[in-house]
Amino acid sequence: MPFAAQGTPSPDLIQKTNDLSVRRQCELLGVTRSKVYYTPKAPDEEAIERKERIMALIDYWHTENPAWGARKIRVLLRNEGYFVTRKTVTKYMREMAIYPIYPGPNTSKRNYKEGILPYLLRGYVPQFPNQVWSIDITYIKMKRRHMYLTAIIDWYSRMIVGWKLSDTLETAPVLDVVREAVERHGVPAIINSDQGSQFTSDDYKELLKSLHIRQSMDGKSRWADNIMIERWFRSLKTEKIYIEEYTTERELRVCIAAFINQYNNVRPHESLDNATPSSVFAASFIACA
Fold first, then answer.
1. Any idea what DSSP says for residue 241?
2. DSSP class of residue 169?
3. In the prediction, which pLDDT does 163 show?
4. Do 89 and 73 touch, CB atoms closer than 8 A?
5. Where are the alpha helices (DSSP H) in the chain?
6. pTM value?
7. What b/e string do you get for 101-110 counting C-beta neighbours within 10 Å, with b at 16 or more?
8. How many degrees, rounded to 5, is the angle at CA 277 between CA 126 and CA 280?
9. Of 25, 68, 85, 153, which alpha carbon lies 20 to 30 A from 160's?
10. How many other C-beta atoms can be found within 10 angstroms of the C-beta atom of residue 252?
11. In contact, 247 and 147? CB cutoff 8 Å
């Protein structure tokens, strides 16, 4: 077998119309015949759509009540005709990076190996923009699939200073949105996040360190520590995501961009004396000039 010592050749090298038999070609190349005749199974579209519908319902109920866990959501799914196990619900929730807010076991013990950092904002009230930003990621349903939205909000002005859509929960989109927000709006003193793997990663920590930004993290299962961005996600979903079906990424992106533009520049906020977030953000810098 002259080729076997160089690694395992691809079954694609086998030619079924060759003068040599398939068996003899496999012997010469060191390839098993089962790999030559194997045909990958096509994805089950019906199963994929069913999973997406279940995940969309999980997201909806979690948005309605962040304290509901897999046990209660499983009952709600059964009431909707989706008979799934609690284990499956838990699996989907983890895949979506959704966790109930009630404390789990051993919450008093921090896992320092995961790089958890303390929450710096207890009782903190910002006095001007760019003192504190909050960053988070949320699941966004579509008609036949889903995406993830990373967004950053300024605590003082309530302005969305950065956002990015991605089809994964990897760290790269988080790094991109932080860089873009800093480039457009300046460097914040503190960025707060939850304890997700993206925010405990070395890449994220190194980025904040290089920008001289202090990193703050919610307490374990402390959904309220990042309440500002969570409330904004809720508004986006109840006003746009849950009432429409978006087929393409472009449609979803246009919808979110329009919502953010209206939220930042048009909609008055009672907490801002009916001013808009963008006007409050800009006015603070003008006053300091």
1. I
2. -
3. 98
4. yes
5. 22-29, 33-37, 45-64, 70-79, 86-95, 172-185, 197-200, 202-210, 227-236, 249-265, 277-288
6. 0.74
7. beeeeeeeee
8. 65
9. 68
10. 23
11. no
Is pLDDT at 272 greater than 50 in this prediction? Answer: yes
Q: Closest by alpha carbon to 167, among 146, 150, 136, 141? A: 146
Asked if the model's pLDDT at residue 105 lies above 50, the reply is no
Name the 3-class secondary structure at 152.
strand
Q: Do 190 and 132 meet the contact criterion of CB atoms below 8 Å apart?
A: yes
Please give the C-alpha separations between residue 76 and each of 47, 63, 241, in angstroms, as whole numbers: 20, 14, 20
Is residue 101 within 8 A of residue 223, CB to CB? The reply is yes
Torsion of CA 263, 266, 267, 269, to 10 degrees: 100
Confidence (pLDDT) at 109? 40
pLDDT beyond 90 at 214: yes
Categorize the per-residue pLDDT at 110 as very low, low, confident or very high, splitting at 50, 70 and 90: very low
- Are 60 and 155 a contacting pair, CB within 8 Å? no
For helices 70-79 and 86-95, the axis angle rounded to 10 degrees is 110
Cβ contact 204:198 at 8 Å: yes
* Residue whose entry in the numeric block shows the structure tokens 């969309």: 56
Structure-token pair, residue 91: 């699996």
Domain boundaries, the chain: 4-37, 45-95, 125-288
For residues 88 and 94, what is the distance between their CA atoms, to the nearest angstrom? Answer: 10
**Helix pair 249-265, 227-236: axis angle to 10 deg:** 120
User: What percent of the chain clears pLDDT 70, i.e. is strictly above it?
Assistant: 78
In words, the CATH class of domain 125-288 is alpha beta
* CA nearest neighbour of 229 among 166, 173, 174, 154: 154
Calpha distance 144→51 (Å, rounded): 9
Gyration radius (Cα) of the chain, Å: 25
